[in-house]
Specification:
three-stranded antiparallel β-sheet, 9 helices
Length: 256
C-alpha cells in the first residue's frame, strides 16, 4: 500500500512538473512571438519613415506624397522583388537550418526574419490610413488570442486539419503570385477572404501542435531541443498573425 501511494505521489509530481513546464514553454513561445512582432512593427515604421517625405522629388505618389531616392530603390525598382520574396526565402532556409542551429542562433535568425518581414510590409503605411492599420491590428489581436486559446484548451484533436490547411496556404501563395501580374480586384478579394479563414484555422492548429509537441518530448529532458521547438512554434504563430492581419487589412483597411 505504501509503495502504491509513493508511486502515485511520484506520478502526480511528475504530471505537475510537466504542466508547469508546459506553461513556461507556452509563455516563452508567446514572448518570442511578441518580440518578433515589435521588431516587425519597428522595422516597417522606420522604413516607411525613411521612404516617405513631404519634400518634392521626381518620384511623386500623390498630391502630397513623394518617394525619396531610398524609397524609389525600395518600391519602384526591381529591388522590390527581393524585398517581397526575401521573408519567404528565409522561412524555407530556417526550416532547413533549424537542426544545425543552436537555440540562441535560431532565436537570432527569427528576429532577423522579423526585421525582414517589417521591411517587406512597410508599404502598408503608404497605402492604408494609420487609423485603419491600428484598427485592423486590434481586430487581428483579439481574433488571434481567441483562436489560440481555443486551440490550447480544446479537447478535440484537430491535427487532421494540418494537411488541408497547408494545401490551402500553397494555393493562396500560387494565386497571389499569379494575381501580381493579373491585378484582379475580384481575385484579390477571394484570396483575402480565404486567407483569413485558412490562417484562423492555422492559429488554432499550430497552438495545439506546440502544446502536443512539448507534452510528447518533455520527459526526454532535452532543453535545447525544446527551446528550438519553441522558437519554431513562435515562428508559426507569428506567420499566422501576420498573414491574418494582412488579409484583414486588404478586406477592411481604408486606403489613402
Amino acid at each position: 500500500m505504501a509503495d502504491f501511494q509513493t508511486a502515485r505521489a511520484t506520478v502526480g509530481a511528475r504530471a505537475a512538473a510537466i504542466d508547469e513546464g508546459l506553461r513556461a514553454h507556452m509563455n516563452r513561445v508567446y514572448g518570442t512571438m511578441s518580440v518578433g512582432m515589435v521588431i516587425t512593427a519597428a522595422a516597417a515604421w522606420a522604413i516607411s519613415g525613411l521612404s516617405m517625405t513631404d519634400m518634392p522629388t521626381p518620384y511623386q505618389l500623390g498630391a502630397d506624397r513623394y518617394l525619396t531616392d531610398f524609397g524609389y530603390a525600395m518600391y519602384a525598382s526591381p529591388l522590390k522583388w527581393v524585398v517581397m520574396f526575401l521573408p519567404l526565402a528565409m522561412v524555407f532556409a530556417f526550416g532547413a537550418m533549424i537542426n544545425r542551429l543552436s537555440a540562441a542562433g535560431a532565436q537570432l535568425f527569427f528576429y532577423t526574419f522579423a526585421a525582414a518581414m517589417g521591411v517587406s510590409i512597410s508599404w502598408i503605411f503608404a497605402v492604408f490610413t494609420g487609423f485603419s492599420i491600428v484598427q485592423v491590428f486590434l481586430i487581428t489581436s483579439i481574433a488571434f488570442a481567441g483562436l489560440s486559446l481555443w486551440g490550447y484548451t480544446t479537447k478535440k484533436d484537430i491535427s487532421g486539419w494540418g494537411s488541408f490547411l497547408i494545401m490551402g496556404v500553397i494555393g493562396l501563395l500560387v494565386a497571389s503570385i499569379v494575381n501580381i501580374f493579373l491585378g484582379s480586384p475580384a481575385i484579390m478579394f477571394a484570396i483575402s477572404a480565404l486567407g483569413v479563414l485558412i490562417f484562423a484555422g492555422l492559429t488554432a492548429y499550430d497552438t495545439q501542435n506546440i502544446k502536443n509537441t512539448y507534452l510528447a518530448h518533455a520527459h526526454h529532458g532535452d532543453q535545447e531541443w525544446l527551446a528550438k521547438a519553441g522558437i519554431m512554434g513562435a515562428l508559426n504563430l507569428y506567420l499566422d498573425f501576420i498573414n491574418m492581419f494582412m488579409f484583414l487589412l486588404q478586406l477592411f483597411g481604408n486606403r489613402e
